[in-house]
Specification:
The chain has about 150 residues and is of the alpha/beta class. Helices cover about 35% and strands about 20% of the residues. The longest helix has 17 residues. It is globular and about 45 Å long. The two termini are about 25 Å apart.
Length: about 150
C-alpha cells in the first residue's frame, strides 16, 4: 500500500493546496495531510482550526487523514509508515528549495519525494497571498476550496 504525506502549514488551506492533494489521491492509496506548526511562530489560525478546516474538506474521503505535527516531515512520514512525501510546486522559484529539501530527506531516510506542480490556474494561489488579502480587508473566499466540495 502506497502512503504519502503532504506537509505544510496551510494557513489557510487554499484551492492550490487542494488541487495538489486531490492529484496526489490519484497516485497514492492513502494521503496524510500534515498541518505543520511551530510553537514559536503561531499563524493567523490555530493549529486546531487549520486541522478542522482541512478535515472538513476531506470528511467523505476515507483515504485522507489530517493531523497536526511539528518537526521534520520525514520523521512524520516514518512514524506514519509513509514512503513518500508530496511537495507542491506552485512557482518555479519554489523548485530549488524543494529539490534541496528532497535531497536532504533522501540522505537521512528511505522516504522519496514526489513533486506535484499546481495546475496553472491555481499556481498563483498561495497561503501568504490569502493572508495578505485578509490583512488588507479583502474577501479571499474565491481562492479557497469549499468544505466538502471535492
Amino acid at each position: 500500500m502506497k502512503t504519502a504525506v503532504f506537509p505544510g502549514s496551510f494557513d489557510p488551506f487554499t484551492i492550490g493546496h487542494k488541487d495538489i492533494a486531490d492529484r496526489a489521491l490519484k497516485i497514492f492509496d492513502n494521503l496524510i495531510i500534515g498541518i505543520g506548526f511551530n510553537i514559536n511562530k503561531p499563524g493567523k489560525f490555530s493549529v486546531e482550526e487549520r486541522v478542522k478546516a482541512v478535515a472538513e474538506i476531506y470528511a467523505d474521503e476515507p483515504k485522507v487523514k489530517v493531523l497536526a505535527y511539528s518537526g521534520l516531515t520525514v520523521e512524520l512520514a516514518k512514524k506514519m509508515d509513509a514512503k513518500f512525501i508530496v511537495r507542491g510546486i506552485r512557482e518555479v522559484k519554489d523548485f530549488e528549495y524543494e529539490r534541496n529539501l528532497a535531497d536532504t530527506n533522501a540522505a537521512i531516510s528511505d522516504v522519496e519525494t514526489v513533486f506535484l506542480p499546481a495546475r496553472p490556474e491555481y499556481g498563483f494561489v498561495s497561503s501568504s497571498m490569502v493572508r495578505e488579502l485578509i490583512a488588507n480587508g479583502y474577501n479571499p473566499s474565491e481562492f479557497l476550496p469549499a468544505p466538502g466540495n471535492h
